[in-house]
Amino acid sequence: MWCHIARPGARFAHRFVLAAAALLGPVPLLAAAGSAQTTTTAGAVLVTTVDGTITPVMARHLAGAIDRAERDAAQLLVVELDTPGGLESSVRDMVQDILASPVPVAVYVAPAGARAASAGAIVTFAAHVAAMAPGTAIGASTPVDLEGGDVARKVVNDATAFAESIARLRGRNVAFAADAVREGRSASAAEAVELDVVDLEVPTLAALLQELDGRTVVVSPGDRPVVLRSAGAAVARDEMGLFERVQQWLADPNLAYLFLSLGTMAIVLELASPGVGAGGIAGAVLLLLAMFSLAVLPVNVVGLLLVALAAGLFVVELFVPGVGVAAAGGAVALGLSGLFLVRDVPGFEVSAAVLVPVAVLAGVAALVAGRVARTVRGAPARTGVGLFEGRVVRVDRTEGAAGWAFLEGAWWRVRARAGGELPAGTQVRVVEVDGLELVVETTATDEAPLEERR
Q1: What is the domain extent for residue 77?
Q2: Do residues 224 and 292 both lie within one domain?
Q3: Dist CA 296 CA 54 (whole Å)
Q4: Are residues 48 and 194 in the same domain?
Q5: Judgement on whether residues 215 and 311 belong to the same structural domain of the protein
Q6: Last residue of a domain, which of 214, 240, 266?
Q7: pLDDT band of 347, cuts 50, 70, 90
Q8: Which of 327, 337, 341 is nearest to 306 (CA)?
């Protein structure tokens, strides 16, 4: 299915995460530098792959392939397509790039078992040449995640008009394009050829190039006719580079939810018990990755607000630990955020196999961390002068009302809190440190000094 983002809240959330993802701005530049390419000669056929959910990353990749085909004077760009659909904005970008391409674009739904579903069908309609491998399918282009009532009809009508206009422009079956949107109609490769939805059914790329040899297509600008001489032409590849693949991999709602949840927990724990900053750094990195993922997904602002609520409840559990009500509430809020964070669009939903364990583990972690924090806050100090409080030592010698005791590698002057003399050999317990003097009280005679108990 292809996702239509319409609600004001969704647009606000989308702009918010786009702004945060701008911190990762250098990544797209590295992606362009790291694309996997082979040398293209003039008159060659350039082949690229669109495989997976259509996102802004995928749309940018196709735009780059068209630019390269034009720059290298390739006679044809073949797009090997296999997609379940994607985002409406990205699909429209891809269609506009294909329609405006000065180089003929052939969309080839392949290999066997591939599909041009939903938004993929619209991209296929837009191609100068549309072909399918045996065992492939096309169609089922109804927009999803609609609001119901008049809004739903407007969205469906808009998508139908868009599909019909593209099919009419390319001389394809307009009725099928409309039914694909309104009724979710699909067709096999053979049926699609019979219905004039696509031009060819061919088993391999080589067979496609052979079939296209001598065919005339009209390209923009100026409706310029181009005769293809593809039989025996050199073939070059333009595939996604490492950084583009990483970006496409990150455009996954499950990863976005995982990064957002773990990053939030890391930041909360760092704020609750500051240390060397490792938790804060890790949390910041995870949140940045989550922001990039959300920047290319249909985001719902309610999901982000639920994440903020979960973080607040976890903080409450850390600083005011009780019976675990705040931790449980945070876990529920975090789980609900996964349901609302990304629209319920096939290919864009958060899996229950990710959502439930992450929410439960976050709640348990907050509960345990709250208990640990309470224990640490109630424990006696283990550094500085607080280290001496409660220690049992022996007075080794006396000087009037004061005495001397050996503690932690040094001699300390000691005096009784209640006053009076401290005879040599008296066992005392440190109750306070007053400057360089230990204030002590006598202990039971059967309690051995700490040095002896060691």
Answers
A1: 35-240
A2: no
A3: 10
A4: yes
A5: no
A6: 240
A7: low
A8: 337
Rounded to the nearest angstrom, the gap between the alpha carbon of residue 17 and the centroid of all alpha carbons in its chain is 11
Q: Can you point out the beta strands (E) in 20-143?
A: 36-37, 45-51, 76-82, 105-109, 115-117, 129-132, 137-139
DSSP letters, 223-273, are TEEEE---TT--EEEEE--HHHHHHHHH--HHHHHHHHHHHHHHHHHHHHS
Classify residue 374: in a domain, yes or no.
Answer: yes
Q: Could you tell me if residue 5 is inside a domain?
A: no
Model confidence, pTM: 0.65
Supply the CATH number for residue 228's domain.
3.90.226.10
Question: In the chain, how many domains are there?
Answer: 3
pLDDT, tens digit, for every residue of 46-72?
Answer: 999 999 888 888 999 999 999 999 999
Q: Which residue has the tokens 């208990």?
A: 371
Cα dihedral 115/117/123/124 (nearest 10): 50
Which residues, 6+ apart, have CB-to-CB distance to 164 below 8 Å? 174, 177, 178
Q: What is the pLDDT of residues 256-306, one digit of tens each?
A: 889 988 888 888 777 666 555 677 888 889 888 888 878 777 778 888 899
Quick check: 376 pLDDT over 80?
no
Tens-place pLDDT, residues 168-222: 999 999 999 999 988 889 999 999 999 999 999 999 999 999 999 999 999 987 8
Encoded tokens for 151: 């809004």
Name, in order, each residue with C-beta under 8 angstroms of 121's C-beta and a sequence gap of 6 or more.
138, 139, 140, 141, 163, 177, 180
**Residue owning tokens 């052979």:** 210
- Say how far apart CA 436 and CA 438 lie, in whole Å: 7
Tracing tokens 């005096």 back to the chain, one arrives at 415
The answer to whether residues 345 and 397 belong to one domain is: no
Tell me the chain's radius of gyration from C-alpha atoms. Answer: 34
Same domain assignment for residues 213 and 336:
no
The verdict on 196 and 66 lying in the same domain is yes
